[in-house]
Automatic annotation (TrEMBL), chain A:
Database matches in InterPro entries: TAT_signal (IPR006311)
Protein name: Tat (Twin-arginine translocation) pathway signal sequence
TrEMBL record, chain B:
Domain of life: Bacteria
Domain FAD-binding PCMH-type: 50-236
UniProt name for this protein: 4-cresol dehydrogenase (Hydroxylating)
Pfam families: FAD-oxidase_C, FAD_binding_4
Keywords: FAD, Flavoprotein, Oxidoreductase
Length: 190, 519
């Protein structure tokens, strides 16, 4: 696990659990002369969101992490000036709020994958290699994180995939419907 | 560029108007492409995607620019749809009443013009959000509270103009507004109340002036563009005592409000007392999937289990007392004795690890937050529309409304998720109809249920105080006294004040003459 350099912002009231810089800043990506600032939104009360975030942090993919507590106020505080690429796996309401705030500031929606729990299984609607999530040995949010990273790096047209897990239980603090999403500001598009 | 143009406007005229708007506000403040226009959609709409999409948006930063925009809109008969912060979700969000309208987006006008600590008010522009005002007050060391609506990103002005409510003693937002500046459709600027007196320093301390009072006609209407508004702010009290009481039985609702009425009318409980149903309260903590994965309303056995697991009642009552501690303690004896007289009542003065308690306690002390959005996780899928009938604070009326609405919800396969708030002499009932937007059949059922409830409620004397864009016309038609005389009056005023019908046509079922025949 990478060491954290936590910079809790001096915000009024509660809301953002914190903003963490992982110490990498803008990360050099595969394209020559281009760099991508990646900000990750983690909904800290949601176990799948934490797993997703950890996977991207472990891969060195995220330059900054915005952690949101149940007040959700951090979305208002922290997304005011964010630029570059913003990624999250969050509950549906958080995805809606983040999307609204980011679109108003000119961001483009790049990915919008859905994961919902029904009939004792997780059902995923994603893009990329078929059956990756179904056959992964990782927890599914980790597999989604890897998949999302791969799709963003490849930048090639992707097919939509539906995928279903084996029988499983829904974690107590899981919202049971999640969205993996990516927004980008102009100048960061491929 | 958007392929949509306003109904009845020639493409060349529309194009010329857009160019002229850009001449007023700059090219970068006129939006015609899909990406920026996508931010004006109603993310929770009960209608299919593609309904209520604007053709363009223009974002002025002041009154002079608004006047110029109105002049252009009048010349080309361009319908404008005004938004402040555009957060009216569950009632349409920022979306226009009809596709093709041009958004008059006032979010850039977000200045807090004045905070008066001595008299307890602020003067704000349309784009000021609750969170922004809250942060500003804390930053300047003010001891004034705001009264936020449940979502912190809502607009101070917009919520008051929509007759919105909050949870402190200053919870009736329109009553707490004081003094408006309005740009009329012909560009004339009017200030209401003492604001009409040149040099007056009392615009925000009294609503009264010589002559008629016009402020109300600029709420839930399309008679002008409100550009400044005063709002009274509550001084921080020396004491604050929030409480929650759970009640075991659905039928306790009647007794709850019979007991509440004298406590409210006599101001023993000064804030908006709220009775929240089991599932609204539970949905801040768990989802429906955790208890039931089938179709239709949640079985009673699951409801009982939720109540037990989460230590909730079928009704969960929130209120708070404010003021000097001796007064709070004195009044608390009266409140406790009255509200705890219902068998099975359980009192909570604190609850650990309970986000619902946490956000209610924050709201009742004027701290904005966004937690209430979490309750949408109950179903997931980003759809909800609020049905909001009003009545007297009467136990019998509350129970009658509840039984009627719950029965219809269950018939249509929905859970009843609602709350009752008591104001000065009124009771707001908010039913949140939740649906997965991706499930077309469910979304259509939600739409049909809403329409049915509007008519059934009106038949027994319950009118809505606020509604989603899609139901404005239907609700307007329920106000039938003397053959619809009130809406006839609205239309007569509209035709005089906005003869070209450029301001928010169809808002609250008020249409300009040219569109009345086609609407």
């Amino acid at each position: 696990m990478m060491a954290w350099n936590l910079k809790r912002r001096d915000v009024l009231g509660a809301g953002a659990l914190g903003t963490a810089a992982v110490g990498l800043g803008a990360l050099a990506r595969s394209e020559p002369g281009r760099s991508r600032t990646v900000t990750l939104v983690e909904e800290s009360g949601v176990p799948e969101s934490r797993q997703f975030a950890s996977a991207l942090i472990d891969n060195g993919f995220a330059g900054e992490v915005i952690r949101i507590d149940p007040s959700l106020n951090g979305l208002l505080y922290e997304l005011e000036a964010t630029t570059g690429t913003i990624i999250g796996m969050t509950s549906d309401p958080v995805a809606m709020i983040a999307g609204q705030l980011l679109r108003e500031r000119g961001a483009h929606a790049r990915q919008f994958w859905q994961h919902h729990f029904a009939g004792g299984r997780w059902r995923h609607r994603t893009e990329g290699s078929a059956r990756l999530i179904e056959s992964t040995t990782h927890a599914w949010p980790v597999a989604v994180a890897h998949q999302l990273q791969s799709v963003m790096d490849n930048r090639s047209p992707q097919v939509t995939n539906d995928c279903t897990s084996g029988p499983c239980a829904l974690l107590a603090s899981s919202p049971g419907m999640l969205v993996s999403w990516v927004y980008e500001f102009e100048g960061y598009q491929s | 560029m958007s392929s949509v143009v306003p109904q009845g406007v020639a493409a060349a005229d529309f194009s010329n108007a857009i160019k002229e708007f850009a001449g007023v506000v700059g090219k970068d403040r006129v939006y015609v492409d899909e990406q920026p226009l996508s931010s004006y959609r109603d993310a929770y709409s009960p209608l299919a995607d593609g309904e209520f999409i604007p053709s363009a948006a223009v974002a002025p930063d002041g009154v002079e620019q608004i006047q110029k925009i109105l002049k252009i809109a009048n010349a080309y008969k361009i319908p404008l749809w005004t938004i402040g912060t555009g957060r009216n979700f569950a009632y349409g969000g920022p979306a226009p009443r009809k596709s093709g309208y041009v958004m008059l987006d006032l979010r850039r006008m977000n200045r807090i013009i004045e905070v008066n600590e001595k008299y307890g008010y602020a003067l704000v522009e349309p784009g000021v959000s609750y969170m922004q005002l809250y942060r500003h007050l804390r930053a300047i060391g003010s001891k004034l509270w705001i009264d936020p609506a449940a979502p912190a990103w809502g607009g101070v002005m917009g919520n008051a103009l929509e007759h919105g409510a909050g949870y402190t003693p200053y919870g009736d937002h329109f009553i707490m507004q004081c003094g408006m500046e309005v740009v009329l459709a012909d560009g004339e600027v009017v200030r209401t109340g003492q604001g009409a007196l040149a040099g007056s320093k009392h615009w925000q301390v009294t609503k009264h002036a010589a002559g008629p009072q016009f402020d109300g006609m600029f709420t839930q209407s399309n008679f002008g563009v409100v550009t400044k508004m005063g709002i009274w702010l509550m001084p921080e009290p020396p004491g604050y005592k929030p409480f929650m009481i759970t009640y075991e039985r659905e039928e306790d609702l009647e007794a709850i409000f019979e007991i509440t009425r004298p406590l409210k009318v006599n101001q023993i409980i000064p804030n908006a007392a709220v009775a929240v149903d089991l599932l609204w309260e539970a949905s801040a903590k768990v989802t429906r999937r955790h208890y039931f994965d089938g179709k239709g309303p949640l079985p009673q056995s699951a409801r009982t289990r939720i109540a037990s697991d989460l230590k909730l009642g079928m009704w969960n009552y929130y209120g708070a007392l404010y003021g000097p501690p001796p007064i709070i303690e004195n009044n608390w004896k009266i409140v406790e004795e009255a509200l705890m007289s219902i068998p099975g009542a359980k009192l909570y003065l604190d609850r650990e690890n309970d986000p619902a308690w946490d956000y209610r306690v924050r709201l009742m002390r004027g701290e904005p937050n966004m937690t209430e959005f979490s309750i949408m996780n109950w179903i997931g899928g980003g759809g909800h529309v609020n049905f909001s009938p009003i009545s007297a604070p009467s136990g019998a009326e509350a129970l009658a409304q509840y039984n009627m609405i719950k029965r219809r919800c269950h018939e249509y396969g929905f859970d009843y998720i609602g709350e009752f708030l008591v104001g000065w002499r009124d009771m707001h009932h908010i039913l949140m109809i939740m649906y997965d937007r991706a499930d077309e059949a469910m979304r259509n059922r939600a739409y049909d249920l809403f329409g049915l409830l509007v008519d059934e409620a009106a038949e027994v004397g319950f009118g809505e105080y606020r509604t989603h864009l899609a139901f404005m016309d239907q609700i307007a038609k329920t106000y039938k006294h003397n053959d619809g005389a009130l809406w006839d009056l609205h239309h007569r005023i509209k035709d005089v004040m906005d003869p070209n019908g450029i301001l928010s046509p169809g808002k609250q079922g008020i249409w300009p003459k040219a569109m009345r025949e086609t609407s």
